[in-house]
Amino acid sequence: MYVHRLYQLEQHLGSTALRRQPPQDAADEALRELVSYAETYRPDTAVVPTVPTAELYSLHSSRRVNTGSNVFQDFDVSRLRGANANAVHFVWADTFTNGSVRASIVTEPNEKYLRIWFENGIRSEEQGERAKGWASNVQIRPREQAALGNENSHGGLRYTALQFFARAPQEERKDGYIDEIGLSLRLLDRRLTYWVYRQAPRVNGPTQFRVATAEWQRFRVELSSEYYRIKAGDGNRWFLKFGSNGEPVPDFTVLPGITVVLGRFTAGREEPQEGKGVVDIKEITMTE
After folding, report:
1. Shared domain check, 200 and 127
2. 54 domain residue, yes or no
3. Biggest alpha carbon–alpha carbon distance for the chain
4. Domain that holds residue 182
5. Nearest residue to 94 (alpha-carbon basis) of 276, 280, 281, 278
């Protein structure tokens, strides 16, 4: 709601400038309206407004939607061409438990892929088990820095799943690296809300894929709403889409980003656990 009011403030300032009114007076008036609204705001009676989708994309540094392709990311990042230069949006690890993560795009004669080195949740003796750790994250952007469109002519999903390939490269293994890598996904939807993918529908079960071979493995990720839950504390929570049962559901008619969560594969656990290793990812595409 506050985001929408700030959006209105921005629009108001733009319109007053056209009328050559003093911009500071206009800003003061708009800010007084915003403060007055905040003092009387009640969540149970407020009506969530509609914000143009392009404005939500602007929060993710992109206003464009690519509707002519089913390729989310192929890691072809030639800077000479000036396109697709920023495949990775961020890398993150919990330094409080000595975590680290780095990523590099590898270009070989016949393929291109993202190689990620990670370490997470390794506690020192002084920290002990009281220090909580989080898995290492890497967020991947679509090709050409444009959100990937996935809407059909009826307003539904053009593609019902995405797929990618992953492996644990043996030539990069070092002492202490884990044998079984756990990989989870968080998808960013049209409304800039993060959704955690689950391996089974309608349950709060494990989210991990198991990557444990040097050969490329193909993984399929369903885009149906029953496979997802909201990632608490991350992303937008005001402009959600709601299903027929009144529960929030993801809006994957547009995909602005995918976050890869890495750690040790542990059967029965919700997310990857402590560990360090290396994993390759390639060819993230939409599919039927």
Report:
1. yes
2. no
3. 68
4. 61-287
5. 276
CATH of the domain at 199: 2.60.120.430
Number of domains in the chain: 2
Task: Specify whether 38 is located in the same domain as 94.
Answer: no
**36-50, pLDDT tens digit by residue?**
655 554 444 444 455
Q: Rounded CA gap, 91 and 140, in Å? A: 9
Per-residue pLDDT for 84 more than 60? no
**Cα torsion angle, 281, 162, 197, 187, sign:** positive
Q: Is residue 56 part of a domain?
A: no
For 127, list phi and psi in degrees, rounded to 5.
Answer: -75, -40
**Each residue of 166-196: b (16+ CB within 10 Å) or e?**
bbbeeeeeeeebbebbbbbbbbbbbbbbbbb
pLDDT tens digit sequence for 197-248: 987 776 666 688 999 999 999 999 999 988 888 877 666 667 778 888 888 8
Residue 287: Cβ within 10 Å count:
12
User: Three-class SS of residue 170?
Assistant: helix
Name the residue type at position 109.
P
Q: Cβ–Cβ contacts within 10 Å for residue 19, how many?
A: 7
d(C-alpha 241, C-alpha 247), whole Å: 8
Instruction: Please give the model's pTM, rounded to 2 decimal places.
Output: 0.75
pLDDT in tens, 139-160: 998 887 788 889 888 888 999 9
Same domain, 36 and 111: no
**Which residue type sits at 262?**
L
113 and 24 co-located in one domain: no
